[in-house]
Amino acid sequence: MNTIPGAGPAAATPEAGTALAGLVASLLPAGSLRRRVASGAAWSVLGSGVSQGMALVAAALAARALGAGDYGSLVVAVGTCTLLAEVAGAGLAVAATRHVAEARASDPDRAGRLAGGAVTLAAAAGLLLAALQFVLAPWVAGSLLAAPALAPLLRAGAPLTFAASVCAAQAGALSGLEAFRGLAGAAAIRGAITLVAVVPGALLAGPRGALAGTVAAAVACAVAQHRALRSEAARRSVALAFAPRSADLRELAHVGVPAVAASLALTFATWASTALLARTSLAEAGVLGVARQWQAVVLFLASAVSGLGLPLVASALPTRNLRSLRRALGASFAASTGLALLVAIPVAALAPWLLAASGPAFAGRGSVLVLCCGAAVLLAANMSVGQAIWALGAHRAGVALAVLRGGLLVLLTAVLAPRGAGGVALAWFLTAALLTAVQAPFIAWVLSRKRAEWGCP
Fold first, then answer.
1. What is the mean pLDDT for each group of 10 consecutive residues in the chain (457 residues)?
2. Taking the model in full, what pTM does it have?
């Protein structure tokens, strides 16, 4: 095709740019809930998308390199580290998000103490649990997993437990500051290092090499989040203090202890579900691990958006405006559920080919991924509701619902694990369905109580 030098599409005019900026400003006014949701969602989706995409590629290539059995060993080891890190950091992350979101404008000094204190406590707890993991690895591998050969791998994962604990608390503090851009950058760094370190590690040193790559990615994420936390705190004139006062500890414990209990119930159930399957077959655990990687793809957009729910709902509480509260909750629920459904449909349709891409050992197992997709949509709906429950201060109910979900998952897995990965995927789907049936009417009841408490018409 012949072209004339210098000729082409007309350059955008300043008037066009001004008109576009005006349209964006009218649709998303500065400081409005819509602007905050859109900005936070955009950065969360970007960071999660890059991180999850790279992690998915790394998982598929690692599964091909390792085979179903060795990949199952890696899944169990990482799952054990995740369980311990949740105990150390997840409850503090929820507490930091809520309290920092509430105090960042009205009492920035207190917000800085709570943010820094949460990170310090998570680091201390993570270090303790990592040490216990190293010492007790032979007992866990032999007695609980019926796989003594996994002991060295569990010991090698102890640094992952520490780094992931710190990452969780940092992410909670960053969410409370609504520093979603910093979170996105750290997630992208973690995804990139996962891709460049896990696959070569698997090829060179098997499951232990892949685990070393996972550890490196978590450490890099912690470093990046630390820098982002300092930068955002300085921008908001929040003075970080990493030595918490006794009053700060009580505030963090008020939300953190129930959140730890809830997180422990959920994460232990997830780990126990994988362990029950691994006792039957590590290869089946590997199949489920690949399917759950794709389930994470279905959930990544929903998770990114639902993560906005806690700070948005918490920041609406001081106004005692029920309409604003409902709008924040409704926006989070609709976005998280809709986005999960949007991704789940094509993933479920392509399930046989997506599983087979991880190697011959995974071919013909598409039904496992279809069940995981169905469970993911229900879990997405529950995530936003769960965030609202914690933000509204219904801590006991949050713990009770987490225990219910965990108990159902373990019970159903114990019954269905003999059917292999498909049976455990079915247990996940049934658990999510039953939890949805309980949580939906409960959140409606909580909102009605808030209406009475605030004297709203």
1. 41 47 52 57 70 86 91 93 84 79 81 87 92 95 90 96 93 86 88 93 94 96 93 86 74 66 78 90 92 87 66 63 71 80 94 90 92 93 73 72 89 94 95 87 76 69
2. 0.73
Q: Which tokens hold the place of 43?
A: 């950065």
Q: Which pair of tokens denotes residue 75? A: 């899944």
- CB atoms inside a 10 Å sphere around CB 430: 18
DSSP, collapsed to helix, strand or coil, labels residue 320 as coil
What does the alpha-carbon distance between residue 343 and residue 15 come to, in Å, rounded to a whole number?
37
Q: How many CB atoms are closer than 10 A to CB 247? A: 10
- Give the start-to-end residue ranges of the domains of the chain: 32-454
User: Residue 50 to residues 56, 185, 301: CA-CA distances in angstroms?
Assistant: 10, 9, 11
The DSSP 8-state label assigned to residue 11 in this structure reads P
Q: Which residues contact 398 (CB under 8 A, 6 or more apart)?
A: 258, 259, 262, 386, 389, 390
Query: Which residue has tokens 């609504």?
Result: 178
Which residue, 254, 261, 277, is CA-closest to 404?
Answer: 261
d(CA 5, CA 2): 10
Q: What is the largest CA-CA distance in the chain?
A: 76
